């Protein structure tokens, strides 16, 4: 898998929440994602890497328990990735 490190900034990003988790599990339309996410997915595809980890899409943002649990694992998530993409500007 590849990870994406990005600054959330002032934009209202699409995020994983308890209310949309089933929709996320069914699949997201790539064209509806922010350009930074689409670009990262494109890089993953070009590198023939099947999975990408994006915090706002992989951590349930309105669950304090999930945020605490996943934040504790974030160092290993990034350390064990095939590649880390750093989006420093958009």
UniProtKB/TrEMBL annotation:
Domain Heterokaryon incompatibility span(s) in chain numbering: 1-89
InterPro entries: HET
Pfam families: HET
Name this protein carries in UniProt: Heterokaryon incompatibility domain-containing protein
